[in-house]
């Protein structure tokens, strides 16, 4: 089960296109709790196992994050058209990314990525205390 931690400065649900994309914070996906402090992420999403991380953040979903970032805020339909994928699959993937806080939705249904980057930190072993 993923854990979520909001750090200061993250967007509160509205796109900031007028302020420029560079104003968005960084998201860090990891399953090593101290990593957010080490890497300075504004939002921390963690998974207990690497297998879960990669099941949730599939290559297709990461591609969607990149495409949505490139396109800017748009409807799920427009995003599906832009990436040439089935609307139903895009809708499901956007829902999962939204559930993890990596995509936000405006009241009119427009979706956007509230981060300028997503960093994945993968600890290969636990150090002895």
Sequence-ordered SSE layout with sheet pairings:
Elements (H helix, E strand, L loop, with lengths): L2 E4 L19 E5 L4 H5 L3 E4 L3 H7 L2 H13 L4 H8 L3 H13 L4 E2 L5 E2 L4 E5 L8
- Derived from helix and strand composition plus strand pairing, the structural class reads alpha/beta
**Shape, principal axes of CA atoms:** elongated
Instruction: For the largest sheet, list the strands in their spatial order.
Output: 1-3-2-6
* Biggest sheet features: 4 strands, mixed
Q: Please report the distance between the alpha carbons of the first and last residues.
A: 25 Å
Q: Mean pLDDT, as a whole number?
A: 74
Order of helices and strands: EEHEHHHHEEE
> Helix amount, in percent?
25-40%
Taking Cα atoms only, what radius of gyration do you get, to the nearest Å?
Answer: 15 Å
Strand residue content: 15-25%
DSSP strand count: 6
Describe the model.
Mean pLDDT is 74; it is low at 1-27 and 30-39. The longest helix is centred in the middle third of the chain and has 13 residues, at 59-71. This protein has 5 helices and 6 strands; from the N terminus they run ββαβααααβββ. The chain has helices at residues 35-39, 50-56, 59-71, 76-83, 87-99; strands at residues 3-6, 26-30, 43-46, 104-105, 111-112, 117-121. It is α/β, with parallel strands linked by helices. Helix 1 (35-39) links the parallel strand 2 (26-30) and strand 3. The strands form 2 sheets. The chain has a 4-stranded mixed β-sheet. It has a two-stranded antiparallel sheet with strand order 4-5. It is elongated, with a radius of gyration of 15 Å.
């Amino acid at each position: 089960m993923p854990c979520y931690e909001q750090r200061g400065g993250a967007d509160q649900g509205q796109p900031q296109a007028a302020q420029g994309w560079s104003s968005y914070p960084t998201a860090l996906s990891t399953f090593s709790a101290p990593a957010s402090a080490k890497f300075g992420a504004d939002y921390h999403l963690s998974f207990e196992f690497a297998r879960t991380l990669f099941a949730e953040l599939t290559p297709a979903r990461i591609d969607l994050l990149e495409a949505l970032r490139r396109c800017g805020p748009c409807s799920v339909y427009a995003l599906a058209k832009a990436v040439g994928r089935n609307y139903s699959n895009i809708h499901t993937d956007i829902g999962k990314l939204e559930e993890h806080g990596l995509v936000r939705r405006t009241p009119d249904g427009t979706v956007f990525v509230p981060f300028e980057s997503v960093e994945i930190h993968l600890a290969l072993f636990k150090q002895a205390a």
